[in-house]
Amino acid sequence: MKGKFITFEGIDGAGKSSHVEWLAEWLRGQGKTVLVTREPGGTELGEKLRTLLLNDPMHLETETLLMFAARREHLAKLIEPALARGEWVVCDRFSDATYAYQGGGRGLDRSKFLTLEHWVHAHVQPDLTLLFDLPLDVARERIALASRVLDRFEQERAEFHERVRLAYLERAHGNPSRIRVVDANNSLDNIRKTLEQIVSTNCL
Ligand SMILES: Nc1ncnc2c1ncn2[C@@H]1O[C@H](COP(=O)(O)OP(=O)(O)OP(=O)(O)O)[C@@H](O)[C@H]1O
Ligand SMILES: Cc1cn([C@H]2C[C@H](O)[C@@H](COP(=O)(O)O)O2)c(=O)[nH]c1=O
Protein backbone atom coordinates (compact mmCIF):
# COMPACT_ATOMS: atom_id res chain seq x y z
CA MET A 1 0.00 0.00 0.00
CA LYS A 2 1.14 3.56 -0.77
CA GLY A 3 2.83 5.56 1.98
CA LYS A 4 1.36 8.78 3.36
CA PHE A 5 2.91 12.20 3.81
CA ILE A 6 1.99 13.85 7.14
CA THR A 7 3.19 17.31 8.14
CA PHE A 8 3.17 19.18 11.45
CA GLU A 9 2.69 22.95 11.54
CA GLY A 10 2.16 25.76 14.03
CA ILE A 11 3.72 28.84 15.56
CA ASP A 12 7.03 28.49 17.43
CA GLY A 13 6.49 26.76 20.77
CA ALA A 14 3.12 25.25 19.77
CA GLY A 15 4.40 21.80 20.74
CA LYS A 16 4.80 20.11 17.33
CA SER A 17 8.21 18.58 17.95
CA SER A 18 6.97 16.98 21.19
CA HIS A 19 4.66 14.78 19.07
CA VAL A 20 6.55 14.09 15.84
CA GLU A 21 8.56 11.10 17.13
CA TRP A 22 5.60 9.93 19.18
CA LEU A 23 3.37 9.79 16.07
CA ALA A 24 6.08 7.98 14.12
CA GLU A 25 6.32 5.33 16.87
CA TRP A 26 2.55 5.00 16.98
CA LEU A 27 2.48 4.46 13.20
CA ARG A 28 5.28 1.90 13.48
CA GLY A 29 3.05 0.13 15.99
CA GLN A 30 0.43 0.00 13.20
CA GLY A 31 2.98 -1.79 10.98
CA LYS A 32 4.14 1.22 8.95
CA THR A 33 7.71 2.04 7.99
CA VAL A 34 8.16 5.70 8.89
CA LEU A 35 10.69 8.37 7.97
CA VAL A 36 10.86 11.34 10.36
CA THR A 37 12.27 14.56 8.98
CA ARG A 38 12.01 18.35 9.23
CA GLU A 39 12.14 21.64 7.35
CA PRO A 40 14.13 23.58 6.75
CA GLY A 41 16.56 20.65 6.81
CA GLY A 42 16.30 16.91 6.35
CA THR A 43 19.23 16.57 3.94
CA GLU A 44 22.90 17.47 4.43
CA LEU A 45 22.49 20.54 2.23
CA GLY A 46 19.12 21.38 3.80
CA GLU A 47 20.63 21.37 7.30
CA LYS A 48 23.36 23.79 6.12
CA LEU A 49 20.65 26.05 4.68
CA ARG A 50 18.75 25.73 7.98
CA THR A 51 21.73 27.11 9.89
CA LEU A 52 21.87 30.11 7.55
CA LEU A 53 18.10 30.64 7.61
CA LEU A 54 17.78 30.49 11.38
CA ASN A 55 20.76 32.74 12.08
CA ASP A 56 21.73 35.09 9.24
CA PRO A 57 19.68 38.20 8.43
CA MET A 58 18.65 38.24 4.75
CA HIS A 59 16.22 39.75 2.25
CA LEU A 60 12.68 38.31 2.42
CA GLU A 61 12.88 36.90 -1.11
CA THR A 62 16.28 35.33 -0.40
CA GLU A 63 14.76 33.71 2.70
CA THR A 64 11.80 32.41 0.69
CA LEU A 65 13.97 31.07 -2.13
CA LEU A 66 16.29 29.32 0.33
CA MET A 67 13.30 27.70 2.06
CA PHE A 68 12.15 26.37 -1.30
CA ALA A 69 15.68 25.39 -2.37
CA ALA A 70 16.03 23.31 0.80
CA ARG A 71 12.56 21.86 0.09
CA ARG A 72 13.44 20.91 -3.49
CA GLU A 73 16.48 18.99 -2.25
CA HIS A 74 14.45 17.41 0.55
CA LEU A 75 11.75 16.22 -1.86
CA ALA A 76 14.26 14.83 -4.36
CA LYS A 77 16.59 13.13 -1.89
CA LEU A 78 14.30 11.97 0.92
CA ILE A 79 10.57 12.55 0.69
CA GLU A 80 9.76 11.34 -2.82
CA PRO A 81 12.01 8.24 -2.68
CA ALA A 82 10.53 7.24 0.71
CA LEU A 83 6.95 7.64 -0.55
CA ALA A 84 7.85 5.69 -3.72
CA ARG A 85 9.09 2.83 -1.49
CA GLY A 86 5.71 2.83 0.23
CA GLU A 87 7.04 4.40 3.44
CA TRP A 88 5.25 7.01 5.51
CA VAL A 89 6.88 10.41 5.91
CA VAL A 90 6.29 12.52 9.04
CA CYS A 91 7.73 15.99 8.55
CA ASP A 92 8.07 18.84 11.07
CA ARG A 93 6.95 21.78 8.84
CA PHE A 94 6.59 22.07 5.05
CA SER A 95 5.24 24.69 2.60
CA ASP A 96 2.39 25.85 4.86
CA ALA A 97 5.19 27.29 7.03
CA THR A 98 6.39 29.43 4.11
CA TYR A 99 2.81 30.57 3.54
CA ALA A 100 2.47 31.50 7.23
CA TYR A 101 5.95 32.89 8.08
CA GLN A 102 7.17 34.49 4.86
CA GLY A 103 3.63 35.28 3.62
CA GLY A 104 1.68 36.07 6.78
CA GLY A 105 4.55 37.08 9.05
CA ARG A 106 6.74 39.03 6.63
CA GLY A 107 4.26 40.00 3.91
CA LEU A 108 5.59 38.07 0.90
CA ASP A 109 3.32 38.52 -2.10
CA ARG A 110 1.05 35.45 -2.21
CA SER A 111 1.47 35.03 -5.98
CA LYS A 112 5.22 34.56 -5.45
CA PHE A 113 4.54 31.84 -2.88
CA LEU A 114 2.08 30.11 -5.25
CA THR A 115 4.56 30.25 -8.14
CA LEU A 116 7.27 28.61 -6.05
CA GLU A 117 4.91 26.03 -4.59
CA HIS A 118 3.76 25.10 -8.08
CA TRP A 119 7.31 24.95 -9.42
CA VAL A 120 8.79 22.92 -6.57
CA HIS A 121 6.01 20.52 -5.66
CA ALA A 122 2.87 20.77 -7.77
CA HIS A 123 3.03 16.97 -7.89
CA VAL A 124 3.43 16.38 -4.12
CA GLN A 125 1.22 17.71 -1.32
CA PRO A 126 0.89 16.37 2.21
CA ASP A 127 -1.94 13.85 2.64
CA LEU A 128 -2.58 15.31 6.08
CA THR A 129 -1.36 18.41 7.93
CA LEU A 130 -1.72 18.69 11.70
CA LEU A 131 -1.86 22.37 12.60
CA PHE A 132 -1.05 22.93 16.29
CA ASP A 133 -2.92 26.04 17.31
CA LEU A 134 -2.67 27.88 20.60
CA PRO A 135 -2.60 31.45 21.93
CA LEU A 136 0.66 33.25 21.45
CA ASP A 137 1.18 34.00 25.14
CA VAL A 138 0.98 30.27 25.97
CA ALA A 139 3.53 29.44 23.26
CA ARG A 140 5.86 32.22 24.49
CA GLU A 141 5.57 30.92 28.07
CA ARG A 142 6.50 27.41 26.95
CA ILE A 143 9.53 28.68 25.04
CA ALA A 144 10.61 30.77 28.06
CA LEU A 145 10.28 27.74 30.35
CA ALA A 146 12.44 25.67 28.00
CA SER A 147 15.10 28.43 28.37
CA ARG A 148 16.65 27.79 24.97
CA VAL A 149 18.63 30.14 22.74
CA LEU A 150 16.12 31.86 20.45
CA ASP A 151 16.63 31.71 16.68
CA ARG A 152 15.97 34.57 14.23
CA PHE A 153 12.27 33.71 13.89
CA GLU A 154 11.66 33.15 17.60
CA GLN A 155 13.20 36.56 18.29
CA GLU A 156 10.54 38.29 16.16
CA ARG A 157 7.98 40.57 17.88
CA ALA A 158 4.61 39.31 19.10
CA GLU A 159 2.77 40.95 16.16
CA PHE A 160 4.82 38.88 13.70
CA HIS A 161 3.80 35.65 15.45
CA GLU A 162 0.15 36.76 15.63
CA ARG A 163 0.21 37.27 11.85
CA VAL A 164 1.82 33.84 11.40
CA ARG A 165 -0.90 32.24 13.52
CA LEU A 166 -3.67 33.98 11.57
CA ALA A 167 -2.13 32.99 8.22
CA TYR A 168 -2.00 29.35 9.34
CA LEU A 169 -5.67 29.47 10.35
CA GLU A 170 -6.59 31.11 7.04
CA ARG A 171 -4.67 28.41 5.16
CA ALA A 172 -6.50 25.73 7.17
CA HIS A 173 -9.81 27.38 6.34
CA GLY A 174 -8.98 27.18 2.63
CA ASN A 175 -7.83 23.54 2.81
CA PRO A 176 -10.25 21.88 5.23
CA SER A 177 -9.82 18.32 3.96
CA ARG A 178 -6.00 18.38 4.27
CA ILE A 179 -5.32 20.63 7.27
CA ARG A 180 -6.73 19.62 10.66
CA VAL A 181 -6.51 22.20 13.45
CA VAL A 182 -5.41 20.65 16.76
CA ASP A 183 -6.09 22.53 20.01
CA ALA A 184 -2.51 22.57 21.33
CA ASN A 185 -3.50 24.31 24.58
CA ASN A 186 -4.06 20.91 26.13
CA SER A 187 -2.16 18.13 27.91
CA LEU A 188 0.29 15.96 25.94
CA ASP A 189 -1.97 12.94 26.56
CA ASN A 190 -5.11 14.63 25.26
CA ILE A 191 -3.28 15.92 22.21
CA ARG A 192 -2.01 12.40 21.49
CA LYS A 193 -5.54 10.99 21.70
CA THR A 194 -6.66 13.66 19.21
CA LEU A 195 -3.77 12.86 16.85
CA GLU A 196 -4.58 9.12 16.97
CA GLN A 197 -8.18 9.85 16.13
CA ILE A 198 -7.37 12.24 13.25
CA VAL A 199 -4.73 9.98 11.71
CA SER A 200 -6.85 6.84 12.08
CA THR A 201 -9.82 8.52 10.43
CA ASN A 202 -7.92 10.21 7.62
CA CYS A 203 -4.98 8.00 6.77
CA LEU A 204 -5.37 4.37 7.91
N1 LIG B 1 0.98 20.20 25.66
C1 LIG B 1 2.00 20.79 26.28
N2 LIG B 1 1.85 21.28 27.51
C2 LIG B 1 2.89 21.91 28.14
N3 LIG B 1 4.14 22.08 27.62
C3 LIG B 1 4.34 21.60 26.39
C4 LIG B 1 3.29 20.93 25.64
N4 LIG B 1 3.79 20.58 24.44
C5 LIG B 1 5.06 20.98 24.42
N5 LIG B 1 5.41 21.59 25.58
C6 LIG B 1 6.71 22.20 25.92
O1 LIG B 1 6.79 23.42 25.20
C7 LIG B 1 8.08 23.63 24.67
C8 LIG B 1 7.97 23.78 23.14
O2 LIG B 1 7.53 22.55 22.61
P1 LIG B 1 8.06 22.01 21.20
O3 LIG B 1 9.55 22.20 21.09
O4 LIG B 1 7.49 20.65 21.01
O5 LIG B 1 7.33 23.06 20.27
P2 LIG B 1 7.51 23.33 18.72
O6 LIG B 1 6.17 23.66 18.20
O7 LIG B 1 8.22 22.20 18.07
O8 LIG B 1 8.41 24.62 18.75
P3 LIG B 1 9.46 25.15 17.65
O9 LIG B 1 8.73 25.22 16.36
O10 LIG B 1 9.81 26.51 18.17
O11 LIG B 1 10.62 24.21 17.64
C9 LIG B 1 8.92 22.42 25.09
O12 LIG B 1 9.66 22.77 26.24
C10 LIG B 1 7.89 21.35 25.43
O13 LIG B 1 8.32 20.47 26.43
C1 LIG C 1 9.85 25.41 6.84
C2 LIG C 1 9.86 26.85 7.26
C3 LIG C 1 10.27 27.22 8.51
N1 LIG C 1 10.27 28.52 8.88
C4 LIG C 1 10.70 28.89 10.23
C5 LIG C 1 9.72 28.51 11.30
C6 LIG C 1 10.58 28.25 12.50
O1 LIG C 1 10.69 29.46 13.25
C7 LIG C 1 11.94 27.89 11.93
C8 LIG C 1 12.26 26.42 12.06
O2 LIG C 1 12.41 26.13 13.40
P1 LIG C 1 11.75 24.84 14.12
O3 LIG C 1 12.23 24.95 15.52
O4 LIG C 1 12.28 23.65 13.43
O5 LIG C 1 10.28 24.93 14.02
O6 LIG C 1 11.88 28.22 10.54
C9 LIG C 1 9.89 29.49 7.97
O7 LIG C 1 9.93 30.68 8.29
N2 LIG C 1 9.49 29.13 6.72
C10 LIG C 1 9.46 27.84 6.31
O8 LIG C 1 9.09 27.54 5.15
Automatic annotation (TrEMBL):
Q: Where are the transmembrane segments?
A: none
| GO annotation, biological process | dTDP biosynthetic process; dTTP biosynthetic process; dUDP biosynthetic process
Q: Which gene encodes it?
A: tmk
Asked if the keyword Kinase belongs to this entry, the reply reads yes
Q: Which GO terms describe its cellular component?
A: cytosol
Its job: Phosphorylation of dTMP to form dTDP in both de novo and salvage pathways of dTTP synthesis.
Q: Name one Pfam family in it.
A: Thymidylate_kin
Identify this protein by name: Thymidylate kinase
* Keywords of the record: ATP-binding, Kinase, Nucleotide biosynthesis, Nucleotide-binding, Transferase
Q: Which SUPFAM superfamilies match?
A: P-loop containing nucleoside triphosphate hydrolases
Query: What chemistry does it catalyse, as a reaction equation?
Result: dTMP + ATP = dTDP + ADP
What is the E.C. number?
2.7.4.9
